[in-house]
Model the fold of this input.
Amino acid sequence: MVNRFNRLTSKEWLPFQKSWFKFESDTKLYSDNLRFFCKAEPSEEKVLYFGRNFDLVSSIGKELKIDVTTEDQYDGPLQFALIDLRETIQGIKDLSEYIVLRDQVISLLGKVYRHMIHRRFVCILMPNLQLENQYLPLAWDMAMQISSMYSLKDEKIGCLNLHDENQVESTRKDVFYSLYFRKDENSTGIYSPHVHNLLNSAQDKKIEPQRELTNHVPAWFILKPAPRKKNEILHPAKYPEELVLMFIEKLTDKDANILDPMSGTGSTQVASLKSGRNAYGTELSSYLPRLLPKDVPN
Done:
């Protein structure tokens, strides 16, 4: 089957659709999005960019033979809109500044709606905002507002820092969100405000400091478990005991009772027994007897 939707190979397609990714650079972030959401072949339809890095996005577009334009210059059909609010939001000092920015984005997307090709996408890159002791879930608010105009299809979390395993840090400033909307049969392009009190109530609430865990659980980490054995491959959704073991050893004491109500292949039980805990679970599958190591007591 010929891929006419985008410029990714089959090996690249699935990794891009994961729910989180490690941020490496603006160049890679922009390039990955342009390659995924722009047509496989060069097209007359343009890409609309809104943000502070137009020159970079334009240069990437030239390499990919994609014409990138701005809100002041676009004309004709659009195959993708990329709106980058990361730097602008980081400079916001109070909630009113965000409201002005949000209204600007809503106005822009309303104007370009008729120019967007059917079943093509809009991407908004943005973080939430920490103002002293006030945490504002701006990405959640933006998603709700824009979803009245375009269909909200997906969101991804960009992780800015992956710390070593001995660090514990708040992730509130270490992530941003990629929100993806589509113009389709379920969208209208007409804005209908989503009324809620979450942003206003957040102004009156203090965020409790992050509780420091006794043995330090890393904020972000990449696990590299040993390859699965032949009999382990029989179960497609088995997660590694190394992952469970890390949390069990750092968050519980020896001889503690560990319960996993959705046991699957019993990874939690295996890790618990290996670390000297008592293991309990339900819904164990038929794979468990074949997967229990010989050195683990029954």
